[in-house]
Amino acid sequence: MIRICKDGKKKYKSLGLSLNPIYWDFKKGKPKVRCPNKAAIEKLISEKKREFTDEIVKLKSENKEFTTNTLADRVSNPVKPRTVGEVFLAQIQRLSEEKRRGYMLSTQQVYNSLIKFNRHLNIYFSDIDITWLRRYETWLRSEDIAENTIGIRFRTLRAIYNVAIEEKLVKSELYPFKSYKVSKLHKGTAKRAITKEEVNKVIIYQGTNEYSKLAVDLFSFSYLMGGINFVDIAYLTKENLIDNRLIYTRRKTKKLIKLPLQDKAVELIEKNHNSDNQYLFPILSSFHKTEQQRANRVHKVITKVNTRLKDIGKELGIPIDLTTYVARHSFATVLKRSGVSTSIISESLGHSSEKVTQIYLDSFDNSQMKDAMRNLL
């Protein structure tokens, strides 16, 4: 047994072997000269002492408190090294279980890209240094990958590396992104917003078929209700309507959003809602039971809706391709041009700032947001 002593408390940990007492020197605490396998037993004792000593030094260097029990547990159950590939797959599985399908697919794409680049991910995070990252960037460019897509690849890889640090799979001092700046991998994109006058043209547009009418209604609802994302609209039910407010959790960021219901938005809900369907808009129904079925349905409808919106935009002479995302962008831009404080609405709705935008929207009370949103029409 090895004895651990700390703060007046003792704990004994078995070394997993036993000896006839005649072979043990109780005064010196080691095998006698004539003990069978003496060298091997002494080596085992020495290595086990070293394990405990190393763990004590590590804990003290990190200014972490420990007890005899926690020390014994850390030595007996050390954190098993995990490869980059294993951490990626675990993250993909977690995102899938959390039903964060968009982020999960994006992480899966990066995983596939890294496999193609490195041929395998049976490597440790300590292997990913600045040289490795530069080689990956060069390879991505040789594959004619767009600049912003390269940026997404690296931001995702950086996020996974941070997970590895949190799980103590790699030392923080090895973090390569202190020197390798991901922020450089960004190319400005053209704004996807239209003017208030152009938005109103879309809102009053009279569609000639059901999908055109639905496309206009979904665009209008998104614009009027904080630029709500199409996927979030698809999952709205009556439970999201509370005290004349729309309250929902963003599926992408898990951020809770609370917005005052606009009168026109209420009209759109009443127009589209079927009492036989739990969902507010005719995108999903009880027929779509599994997450995969719902994801497929959302993808199918948004494709048709955006096709109709593009046709409507061309007919109305709008200078950019009209999509549901344009409604989201236009919501922020119209408020900004109307003089609404940037502390209430963020100027940009790009991927890098969506979280910031939603944080700002959520941080003001209902009356402030209601006053601001009067500028929309």
Task: Summarize this entry quickly.
The chain is mostly helical. The chain has 14 helices and seven strands.
* DSSP strand count: 7
How much strand? 5-15%
Largest sheet: 3 strands, antiparallel
In the CATH classification, which architecture of the largest domain applies?
Answer: Orthogonal Bundle
Q: Which structural class do you get from the secondary structure elements?
A: mainly alpha
CATH superfamily of the largest domain: Intergrase catalytic core
Quaternary organisation: single chain
N-to-C SSE series?
EEEEHHHHHHHHHEEEHHHHH
Shape: elongated
- Count up the domains: 3
Strand order of the largest sheet: 5-6-7
Q: Termini, distance in Å? A: 79 Å
Per CATH, the class of the largest domain reads Mainly Alpha
Bin the helical content: 40-55%
**Whole-number radius of gyration?**
30 Å
How many helix segments? 14
Residue runs with pLDDT of under 50 for 5 or more positions: 346-354, 356-365
Mean pLDDT: 84
Give the CATH topology of the largest domain.
hpI Integrase, Chain A
Question: Can you offer a commentary on this structure?
Answer:
With 377 residues, this protein is mainly alpha-helical. The protein folds into three domains: 2-76, no CATH class; 84-184; 196-376, Intergrase catalytic core (hpI Integrase, Chain A). The chain has 14 helices and seven strands. It has helices at 38-61, 68-76, 84-97, 101-118, 130-142, 147-166, 196-203, 210-224, 230-234, 263-272, 291-315, 324-337, 354-362, 366-373, and strands at 2-6, 9-13, 24-25, 30-31, 241-242, 245-249, 256-260. The chain has a three-stranded antiparallel β-sheet. It has a two-stranded antiparallel sheet with strand order 1-2. A hairpin with a 4-residue loop joins strand 3 and strand 4 (30-31). The longest helix is centred in the C-terminal third of the chain and has 25 residues, at 291-315.
